[in-house]
User: Fold Thiamine-monophosphate kinase from Poritiphilus flavus.
Amino acid sequence: MLEDKSPKKTELSSLGEFGLIEHLTRNFSLEQSTSVKGVGDDAAILQFGDRQSVISTDLLIEGIHFDLSYVPLKHLGYKAVVVNLSDIYAMNAMATQITVSVAVSNRFPLEALEELYEGIASACAIYNVDLVGGDTSSSTKGMLISVTAIGEVEKGNAVYRKGAKANDLLVVTGDLGAAYLGLQVLEREKEVYKVNPKNQPDLSMYSYLLERQLKPEARKDIIELLQKLEVRPTSMIDISDGLSSEILHLCKQSEVGCNLFEEKIPLDPTVIAGCEEFNLDSSLVALSGGEDYELLFTIGQDDYEKIKGNPNFTVIGHMTEAKEGAHLITRANTKLKLEAQGWNALN
Amino acid sequence: MLEDKSPKKTELSSLGEFGLIEHLTRNFSLEQSTSVKGVGDDAAILQFGDRQSVISTDLLIEGIHFDLSYVPLKHLGYKAVVVNLSDIYAMNAMATQITVSVAVSNRFPLEALEELYEGIASACAIYNVDLVGGDTSSSTKGMLISVTAIGEVEKGNAVYRKGAKANDLLVVTGDLGAAYLGLQVLEREKEVYKVNPKNQPDLSMYSYLLERQLKPEARKDIIELLQKLEVRPTSMIDISDGLSSEILHLCKQSEVGCNLFEEKIPLDPTVIAGCEEFNLDSSLVALSGGEDYELLFTIGQDDYEKIKGNPNFTVIGHMTEAKEGAHLITRANTKLKLEAQGWNALN
Assistant:
């Protein structure tokens, strides 16, 4: 009964996150007539009646996904909801409900959970979603938060990672890299605090970076704007792991290549200043930093006129035939193969 | 930034699981027109088009909800799915999809996750549900599994915890207490193993008890049977925490009382024998043991003829006016107040 039934040992790290879930779910097929889209996109799509529901779920773990020594619980609750809503919007859908399960060890008093739920309530109010389920339980270590988001989209309107065509334009919303730099500021202050707990640092110059890290927003406004502009992206994804990783997801699932232009990547001035201070390459931060929760999508060239000049959008490249591969065209006009480095590139 | 923002400290244990989630969600209201039923039942109900979707979610934590020293990973995967499906069936709905998120520390090799997903696949095949989403990530300690189940039900057919009327009959499916006794056998064998790892115990006499604990089934068949018999329960819940706790949920939400007859509680002969061996009271085990995943429901007296004599069902009591309270009528004809002891009663 207690023998080791797994004599073969393959290190999980040898597969990587995306390889792992693909491997584990390779034999699962969709049998239900209501299952439209399963594993492998930002969210799943289910067809109930004439509307489609969209489902996305995320498990956040203290010490892996967040550090309570500098993340206020209210912000954590807010962010846990927002990152899930972002996946729903990335399907061109509107989020409608969430469920939240929380587990905590006995070091947390009720007031800590109240703060967390204040943040959850705040996100629910701002994004107009209802909390409809979930539970609380004990954990052996730290805090765990599992959020499932549900949304809806009219049949035919969902946008997948698959769908980009060669010559489509690659568009990103907002600016990139600030969330990662915000994390660098917080990590540095944590070290300072360890040495001198009485130090009260002035972090006001980093307020944009910190806000992007601690209290990110999901781009519900963009989904509404695209509808108003009558632009239907050919493919879409949200930027949680970093620009290069997300571009490669679009390329792989759409079976296309891509040319990304370094000089086009939108950077906030505080990101450029912060990169100088931390001695980081700002393009690398944008490409690999992640957690920006902006939307990355492709549109047909015909739609360019509709988005041209809108400050929400930046065209950063175009898709190519698959055989051409995915490349970054640097400011020096060198062509580099795009690689999904995610966080690893910066560690 | 790093100061303690929660000077008030209230121990979570002072509220209990049900009190806690009620407290934390007391200020959340349902604003979306598609939100039919939120927190506080076995599952949430959403209205998309003419069909209703049902959503339930559960977070399982190693060391809290399962012990990998005696639970095979394949069974764990199976059970993690089944306990969520049980919540969907408890709404009189059919489960259609699940999402699964798993986090593991680096002590787990790929083969361990493969075993877990074998069990998940097996449950998906047997209950005819599709895995449509989820992810894998790292944990700082042990294994965590978060499952969200989605189902559907025709408008007007969902059965809530609320709805029982005075004089309705209280009905339970299958038999109770075996899952708890199975756990006792496993805990005992774990202690034996610690002393003598080479001991190969013969557990064949406990096979029913062990199966109920390690590989429980959800009562999809009962939902199909009730439909065939044209019986629509007035209220329903699944038995995860123990009979007495679930009865009190029905009473509270339906605003009724209850008389439960000890002599009517269905017990398998192996449960009676096991209770003698472990020196436990079999009624207490059935009332407080939990994890049986049977269905508990109420029906109008007019429906009695339809279920009479069916071996799947046992009438164990009847509902009363709320002011009469909830009571256990013992074999000695004593009337005891029913209390939600859950696991605590047996620890």
Q: What stands out?
A: Residues 34-154 of chain A form a domain with the 60s Ribosomal Protein L30; Chain: A; fold (CATH 3.30.1330.10). Chain A has two domains: 34-154, 169-197+206-346. Confidence is low (pLDDT under 50) at residues 342-347 of chain A. DSSP finds ten helices and 14 strands in chain A.
